[in-house]
Amino acid sequence: MVVLCGSQEGGGASAFAANTQDPDHQLAGRFHAATMVRNRPRTLGTWRVTTTSPTTADCVGQLLGGHAHQDPTTGRAEVLTAASTVGILLEGPDALHIGWQRSVNVTCDGATQDDGQHCACPAGLAARRAAAKRGDGCRPRLEVRFVLADAPAAGVFGFASEDWSLVEQASMLREALDGSRMPARARLRLERTLHTLRSGRVLACTRPVITLARADRKPEDPSATAR
Which pLDDT tens digit goes with each residue over 188-208? Predict the structure, then answer.
């Protein structure tokens, strides 16, 4: 199903490059995996989308389910969708940018800090994750730019995350998309799992996952294609 709708916001070709310092007003909207309840973050089982365009909000609601309403604190339109998975198009490896931050004022590109000094972080992701866990390494911040596969005219959306597993997935996706000339179909989904604490309390946790669409396909039954 392709939804015919347009965006009243930005979202041109320049907004696709997630490694630029594009402000949010160049995006059609943002996807979120959490919300605030009584001033506390709460993870969600379905995607929440914010936008400044009522037209875009209506389009998202039509495509992913849910109804748009205005957030009184931000003035933005918001849709708590019914979808945990959304089909997207990625415009090459630059659609996934992995940034690094040691503190509020110190960021780097993985090799050089923004002040020009060499970053002391290890080269590999596993070593960086271990260093960050010890408290002497940078934390990642992934920025994804994409269009909705079933509503490309809605414009470019963004999603940001500091989840290490998602950063590792994005790193592999960047390699897979290197040299691609056509937008790649992918799936952005929220994976919900249950964790039991030592006290016996069960907590529901949600983590974002991104995969190429072809990687999600199940192998065909050989008997169905045998001649």
Answer: 999 988 888 889 888 878 899
In a domain, 123, yes or no: no
| Residue 171 structure tokens | 């790193």
Residue 158's nearest CA partner among 173, 170, 179, 143 is 143
C-alpha to C-alpha distances, 187 to 27, 74, 139, nearest whole angstrom: 19, 29, 25
Mean pLDDT across the chain: 83
Let me know if 167 is exposed, middle or buried by CB neighbors in 10 A (0-12, 13-18, 19+): buried
The neighbour count for residue 109, using CB atoms within 10 Å, is 13
Q: β-strand 68-70 against 202-212: which pairing, if any?
A: unpaired
Q: Is the pLDDT of residue 222 over 50?
A: no
Residue 55 belongs to what domain range?
Answer: 27-94+141-216
Exposure on the CB side of residue 176, measured as CA atoms within 13 A: 18
CA angle 196, 197, 200 (to 5 degrees): 80
- Cβ proximity of 157 and 50 under 8 Å: no
In the block, residue with structure tokens 């008997």: 223
3-state DSSP call for residue 225?
A: helix
Residue 109: partners with Cβ closer than 8 Å, 6 or more residues away: 99, 100, 119
Residues found in the chain: 227
Contact 85, 170 (CB under 8 A): no
Q: Would 64 be classed as within a structural domain?
A: yes
Would you say residue 224 has pLDDT above 50?
A: no
pLDDT category at 215 given cuts 50, 70, 90 is: low
Total of domains in the chain: 1
